Amino acid sequence: MTTPDDAHSPNAATRAKAALRRDPWDLPDVSGLVVGVLGGTGDQGRGLAYRLAKAGQKVIIGSRAAERAQTAASELGLGIEGAENAECARRSDVVIVAVPWEGHAKTLQALREPLAGKLVIDCVNPLGFDKKGAYALKPEEGSAAEQAAALLPDSRVAAAFHHLSAVLLQDPAIEQIDTDVMVLGESRGDTDLVQALAARIPGMRGVFAGRLRNAHQVESLVANLISVNRRYKAHAGLRVTDV
What is the DSSP letter of 213? Predict the structure, then answer.
């Protein structure tokens, strides 16, 4: 039996068709969101924190030690704050995970409660290194992002920012970073939000690249980019053509 409200609300098929008709570049305003960066004292985390803060985003760096986070924040300036990981998670609307792969699971397990209800953007690349160079690792869950989703059942998990050069991100002499960001997730609203965050950084564009089950190959591609960079003495990124 349907209620009057049910009769006047669009059904799932109608909503799906409406979503397909939406302009994929019509993205939300994310300028008022507080972005936390777990692992913000490392190169990738510092670079992302710097670029987002420079674009006008409120940013909090998280670390296992509040003092380390505060030191990194003061070095970066731009109104960035530093806090212990749990406080960073609690105070942020969106949290980027940029910790080393070796500490990924342990970090997220400890933050399940403060990350509940948050959008968590995982940019961790499971990689190994030997005398032949970098190579991809495949976690039991399929990818770092899928591991995050399994460990954080009360959070919404997306994957993005994997292919960015930490050197370019941290270089204040570089005004634009010409690259696309592959964005993966289960919700159109969440991936649109991540794309909008990427677009805050001059030269950067977020491109939807599928659901989390496709995160492994995106994470793995970093091993190839490391090989490119070593051969050509470069800081390579990606561009997706014809979109």
Answer: G
Q: How far apart are alpha carbons 137 and 221 in whole angstroms?
A: 11
**In which band, very low, low, confident or very high, does the pLDDT at 23 lie, cut at 50, 70 and 90?**
confident
- In this prediction, residue 1 has a pLDDT band, given cuts at 50, 70 and 90, of very low
pTM: 0.89
Tokens of 219: 């994470």
Chain centroid to CA 5: 37
Nearest Cα residue to 219 out of 110, 107, 136:
136
The DSSP code for 186 is S
Beta-ladder partners of 128: 135
Closest CA to 99 of 130, 140, 62: 62
**What phi and psi values does residue 58 have, to the nearest 5 degrees?**
-80, 125
| Max CA pair span of the chain | 67
Picking from 158, 170, 167, the residue whose alpha carbon sits closest to that of residue 197 is 158
